[in-house]
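Because discrete structure vocabularies remain unfamiliar, we reproduce here a specimen of the format, pairing a chain with its fold in token form:
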Amino acid sequence: MFSRINQIFILLFSFYFLFQLYFILNTKLTFFSDDAIYATLARLFYHGNYSYIIHPFWMPLYPIFSAITYNFIKNWELSLRLVSAISTTLMLIPLFWISKKTLSPILTIIFIISLISNFLLFKVGTFPQSDALATLLLITSFSYLYMSFFTNSGFKKNLFILTSAFFCGLNFLTRPEGTLYFAIFLSLHLLYRIQLCN
């Protein structure tokens, strides 16, 4: 059985996604700047022109997910925006898990409500850009790294660290800034090892 806090979270999670979906389906957006480039890359991938999607700045993961979504929707604007909406909604899961481990149930629900009430997060989730997907991958990566700090099992600890590194790598395939997180993760891991030695 789900606990009460999990049931409330599922309701908030569902409401947030459905509200984003309703907003996307009832608004129109004209591509310009970055989102036009992502839409072009997604179309190239969809039509099998894989050599054109390898770029040192415009990373391929967001266009690839958008092209996969296009198989079901057949609308480029909706496909790109839906990937962003799904990303911001899924972002609530690791944040809920961490808050449930560190906060009381009431504060956890207040925290989740504050997230879904945040206009900037909602805006990111309804725009056809890679920010939402990159943020989801970064938060998920840090969540697994956090989990590795609080397990005594050597196998689980290594599994969490590898999973964290995997999502960090996916983040690099979404935004070029992902390379910067390697130094952060390495520093955190070294600090943790030093703490173990002491």
